[in-house]
Design brief:
With 443 residues, the protein is mainly beta. Helix content is 4%, strand content 47%.
Length: 443
Amino acid sequence: MAALPASAVLLGELPGTALAAAPPSGSATRYTIVPFLNSNDGTVNVYQSDDATDFRLVKASAYTPPSNRIRDASVFKHTDGYYYITYTTHTWQDVSTTIGFARSSDRVNWTFLYDYTVPIANLSRAWAPEWFVDSDGSVYVIVSCSLTSDEWIFTPYLLKATNSALTAWSSPVALSGIGANHIDTFIVRIGSTYHAFTKNETTKYIEYGTASSPAGPYTISRTGDWAGWGSYREGPALVQLDNGAWRLFFDGYGDGNYYYSDSYDTFATWSAPTALPAISGTARHFTVIKETVSGGPALAKNVTRSFQSANYTTRYWQTQSSLLNLPVVTSSSTSAEKTASTFTVVAGLADASGCSFRDSSGNYLRHWDFRGRFDANDGTSTFAKDATFIARTGTATGSIRFESYNYPGYYLRHYNYQLRVERSDGTALFRQDSSFTPVTAWA
């Protein structure tokens, strides 16, 4: 999928800013991560996903620095059109006073730029640099630093780029209010408030604080296991999903998994942490770029269609006693069966860029107890969200996967020829079972 012109790319690609909306027809959301590997801190892979859940490998060993190591890579897209990563340059046992920089024109093939010595007296380690781009376009790196007097007590510092080439930086400024023994600080700005997520190295919990300027002072208001994520978590990174929720990714280094958790109320409450499929146990400490790109599925609205299973091509969506099933439909099927297998695609009830489906009686497809069923629209926001789906590219040419709007990462998929909304497990079989091709309506 090719990137759209710069004027059409969502600001969500920049750390600290994001817009939320389902991608328009013919476009797709693309999330990119560039993690180092649990088995190798000398290289990074590139993965991408259209739903921030099912990440698939784009290129293995996409970047290996000319010397030293690469850990904790943070990535963003700059206004010059290039993608940049900054990273920790040494393994955790070694003294490490530099952070590395590389760039790419395509997210896949990377070129080393330089190692930057962080100018702090008696510096022992400079770790986990994280990009932050403010709403005025200012580019920052937040880096966790320790001194030779106590090499394992880290304090977050802010570096501001003083040129557009990202080769000159301001003097480091400690983030006020977060204090010593915090690492992996990640910041987003919403309105006039800066929100910081940071790991407390003493307790091993991710904490949360706010400030009115990027350097602080921050007020840490959530400590301990306040969000239910557990301990021995690090590397928090945020991105806003298409439905407006904020997703926090973090490295569960204590148990070898990589997790995500979602918030719909600006970080007050969070969903139970869920291990990312496919890449848990492989990927370590990453941040995320979100973009809108061309080449996504195109599904016309206000048109009747039938929907054919991509991997059981004689079977089609059909409403049976208000439930959505997947029976065999042929030219010999009855008129009633053909009518029950015909649906009108309309603009999503909760998001017009998404889609909703109406049967011949005027009822809408929605999930109820994770089962696909048709009900009359009751006008509530819950119903609208239950009945809205985001079109994602399917496995077969022309096929589409339909992601639940209010359960990100859950898809309509067939199981025992019934249609359910289930969480993606990252397997090829799941992607096939959740792929359907819109075809000429049976009735």
